[in-house]
């Protein structure tokens, strides 16, 4: 490009790659937290670019709740195979079986918060000192306050009132024994940036993100996929709908949107005109006004 | 696709709760359709439950529990919006004195600062502080918004007096580009749309200015600086001899074929390729992340810097630095610290405390024996190994350091090299 200006996507890419390379350089045992959602797929793509022609020099960690979409698992396995990168799976079912975590009960039961136990156990088992994730500041108000390099104490907790100041592009990853960092290379990306970049780079995504037919249950205005993990409440019925997902979490808590957008151009057009946030369909955020902050303090992603 | 070819502008806003900062940000987000209906619903519900009879837009930005409880902004919050012309990142920083460190943090990456002044109150102590920090951190552009013009009957005289007061103060600061705009964030005058209440104002609206201010020369394109982050060695059969230097360009323009010098070794070589993900790049400049390969096998590692043979940075173990102190533990002479500079890290020691700057009068306070939280002071630092630097005013990346406590690992200071 002339005039020595790079466009906003290239600038965000450059920033993210810088941060990913800093993680690899500053930590002994970094990992990439892979959820199977578009943001962690994007992050994996950026990590590949950062170290090419070498392979990604750290493993991916996936916390498997046992309630994942089958599409997510299939996509994950194919991606790992293609990149030749190591995959570590932390199992929520295992944590429950061992008595480390207790299954929630009731119709709205979810394994979302149970992930915290498996995540922290897995990080400890593998002596992880930096876990990078695809969280973005525009997603949620507590995340808007998050640093690129976010310090966690030995209990995995976040102290939002006492965060290290982060200046220029000088990232301080120094820590004491037993502490670790969460690092968020795509902090400054918005949902629109993610989709435009996916299109620009032609990044492959699970089919869930594109319009498809599915049996659904509408609960409190949120469209949920009907699955073995969902108990129908009185008066609820299963309806076949044309939907797609804007985010991908567990089957029982991720809300879909009614949509006919079946390619990237249509999705970008849809996002440009939509009036609700992408986490608007996440039942896990609706438990309290500060649900995300509360979970993050405990060690959530 | 045309939308992809827009630039990114990072700006900071500084002001107290009463200046209408949240209202202004709320308006920019709302008028650019960056607030979603569910966010607005949540803020409305929350305002109502607090017993307010208006929608408190500050609830959009104040995300932490303690912020909501106390009704103040504690930490830097980042906000995002886009227009067809540009994408914006707002570093929204609190204005209270005890949070100077957050203002400095937000300012360190900004292209532009919005300084808000309440038209009824004029220049306040904190206006001085905001302007001074913007100049200290060398934010290239500043917009002074004289807000709440509706409460002074849109008076040209009130506006003109504030502008002249500000200019009298800022002439000592050296901010290159300052614009003044009379606005009412509440009613939207001169924010996105031109005001019908201020015929006497012929300048542009805030949004127009944000969309058009010339930022392509904000990076240094003269002095070639490439700090090495890491060395890429694939160890595969097809890439056995590959040795790439990964990093982000901090200044100048690099091209394949350029003669370069490596610091600290002083070895000279020629750039073979500049690439990313296997794609060749013809010209690389700040802030691009690239991988560089050289014609000769040179033993570079993290913390080294690739520069042009005939344009090298300063190389020294003695740094003269303006620091903002961010820790409740003061610095004294002989304090031992860790210094981070570009991708380099070394230990250092504070040799001399020269003076503090009174942020309101800009006067120097000499004969000091310690520098405390939120102080801005000039100090001399001796490092254990040589640092390759430029003056901060010449290059914000190669001229900045952070100071880290050796024991606690906290970031305790930010420094700009003189």
TrEMBL record, chain A:
Location of the region described as Disordered in the Swiss-Prot/TrEMBL record: 276-301
InterPro entries associated with the record: PAPS_reduct_dom, Rossmann-like_a/b/a_fold, SO4_adenylTrfase_ssu, Sulfate_adenylyltrnsfr_sub2
Its EC number(s): 2.7.7.4
Coiled-coil ranges per UniProt: none
GO biological process: sulfate assimilation
UniProt cross-references to Pfam families, sorted A to Z: PAPS_reduct
Stretches assigned to the Phosphoadenosine phosphosulphate reductase domain: 29-255
Alphabetical keyword list: ATP-binding, Nucleotide-binding, Nucleotidyltransferase, Transferase
A single GO molecular function term of this UniProt record: ATP binding
Family: Belongs to the PAPS reductase family. CysD subfamily.
Protein name in UniProt: Sulfate adenylyltransferase subunit 2
Automatic annotation (TrEMBL), chain B:
Segments forming domain Tr-type G: 6-219
Keyword check for Nucleotidyltransferase: yes
Sections of the chain in a coiled coil: none
PANTHER family: TRANSLATION FACTOR (PTHR23115)
EC number(s) reported in the record: 2.7.7.4
GO biological process: sulfur compound metabolic process
The organism of origin for this protein: Winogradskyella arenosi
InterPro entries assigned to the protein according to its UniProt record, in alphabetical order: CysN_GTP-bd, CysN_II, CysN_NoDQ_III, G_TR_CS, GTP-eEF1A_C, P-loop_NTPase, SO4_adenylTrfase_lsu, T_Tr_GTP-bd_dom
Secretion signal span: none
Broad EC category: transferase
Keyword Nucleotide-binding: yes
GO molecular-function terms, A-Z: ATP binding; GTP binding; GTPase activity; sulfate adenylyltransferase (ATP) activity
Domain of life: Bacteria
Keywords: ATP-binding, GTP-binding, Nucleotide-binding, Nucleotidyltransferase, Transferase
UniProt cross-references to Gene3D superfamilies, sorted A to Z: P-loop containing nucleotide triphosphate hydrolases (3.40.50.300), Translation factors (2.40.30.10)
Protein name as catalogued: sulfate adenylyltransferase
């Amino acid at each position: 490009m002339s005039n020595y200006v790079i466009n906003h996507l290239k600038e965000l890419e450059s920033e993210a790659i810088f941060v990913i390379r800093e993680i690899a350089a500053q930590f002994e045992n970094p990992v990439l937290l892979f959820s199977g959602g578009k943001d962690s797929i994007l992050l994996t793509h950026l990590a590949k670019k950062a170290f090419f022609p070498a392979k990604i020099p750290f493993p991916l960690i996936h916390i498997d709740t046992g309630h994942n979409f089958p599409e997510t698992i299939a996509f994950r396995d194919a991606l790992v195979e293609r990149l030749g990168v190591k995959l570590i799976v932390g199992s929520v079912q295992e944590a429950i079986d061992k008595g480390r975590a207790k299954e929630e009960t009731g119709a709205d039961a979810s394994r979302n918060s149970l992930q915290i136990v498996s995540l922290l156990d897995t990080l400890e088992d593998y002596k992880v000192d930096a876990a990078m994730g695809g969280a973005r500041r525009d997603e949620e108000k507590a995340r808007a306050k998050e640093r690129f390099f976010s310090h966690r104490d030995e209990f995995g907790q976040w102290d939002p009132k006492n965060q290290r100041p982060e200046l220029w592009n000088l990232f301080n990853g120094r820590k004491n024994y037993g502490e670790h960092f969460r690092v968020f290379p795509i902090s400054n990306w918005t949902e629109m940036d993610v989709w435009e970049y996916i299109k620009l780079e032609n990044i492959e995504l699970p089919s869930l993100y594109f319009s498809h037919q599915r049996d659904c249950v509408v609960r409190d205005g949120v469209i949920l996929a009907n699955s073995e993990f969902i108990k129908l409440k009185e008066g609820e019925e299963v309806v076949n709908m044309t939907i797609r997902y804007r985010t991908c979490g567990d089957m029982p808590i991720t809300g879909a949107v009614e949509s006919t957008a079946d390619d990237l151009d249509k999705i970008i057009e849809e996002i440009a005109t939509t009036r609700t946030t992408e986490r608007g369909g996440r039942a896990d955020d609706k438990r309290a006004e500060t649900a995300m902050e509360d979970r993050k303090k405990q060690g959530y992603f | 696709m045309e939308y992809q070819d827009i630039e990114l502008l990072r700006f900071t806003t500084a002001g107290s709760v009463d200046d209408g900062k949240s209202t202004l940000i709320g308006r920019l987000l709302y008028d650019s359709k960056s607030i979603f209906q569910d966010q607005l619903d949540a803020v409305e519900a929350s305002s109502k439950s607090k017993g307010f009879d208006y929608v408190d837009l500050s609830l959009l930005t104040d995300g932490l529990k303690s912020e909501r409880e106390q009704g103040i902004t504690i930490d830097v919050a980042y906000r995002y919006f886009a227009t067809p012309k540009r994408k914006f990142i707002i570093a929204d920083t609190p204005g209270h004195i005890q949070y100077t460190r957050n203002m400095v943090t937000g300012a360190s990456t900004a292209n532009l600062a919005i300084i808000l002044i309440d038209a009824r109150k004029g220049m306040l102590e904190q206006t001085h502080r905001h302007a001074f920090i913007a100049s200290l951190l060398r934010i290239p552009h500043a917009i002074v918004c004289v807000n709440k013009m509706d409460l002074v009957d849109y008076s040209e005289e009130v506006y003109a007096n504030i502008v002249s007061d500000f200019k009298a103060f800022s002439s000592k600061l050296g901010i290159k580009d300052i614009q003044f705009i009379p606005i009412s964030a509440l009613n939207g005058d001169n924010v996105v749309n031109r005001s019908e209440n201020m015929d006497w104002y012929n300048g542009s609206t805030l949004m127009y200015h944000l969309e058009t201010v010339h930022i392509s020369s904000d990076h240094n394109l003269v002095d070639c600086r490439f700090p090495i982050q890491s060395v890429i060695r694939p160890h595969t059969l097809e890439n056995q001899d590959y040795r790439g230097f990964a990093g982000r360009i901090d200044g100048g323009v690099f091209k394949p074929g350029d003669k370069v010098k490596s610091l600290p070794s002083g070895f000279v070589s020629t750039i073979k390729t500049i690439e990313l993900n296997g794609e060749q790049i013809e010209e690389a400049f700040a802030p691009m992340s690239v991988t560089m390969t050289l014609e000769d096998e040179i033993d570079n590692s993290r913390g080294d810097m690739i520069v042009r043979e005939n344009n090298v940075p300063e190389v020294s173990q003695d740094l003269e630095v303006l620091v903002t102190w961010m820790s409740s533990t003061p610095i004294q002479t002989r304090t031992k610290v860790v210094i981070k500079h570009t991708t380099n890290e070394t230990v250092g020691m504070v040799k001399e405390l020269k003076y503090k700057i009174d942020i309101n009068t800009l006067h120097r306070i000499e004969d000091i024996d310690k520098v405390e939280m939120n102080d801005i002071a000039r100090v001399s630092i001796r490092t254990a190994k040589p640092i390759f630097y430029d003056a901060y005013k010449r290059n914000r990346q190669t001229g900045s350091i952070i100071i880290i406590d050796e024991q606690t690992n906290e970031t305790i200071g930010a420094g700009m090299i003189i």
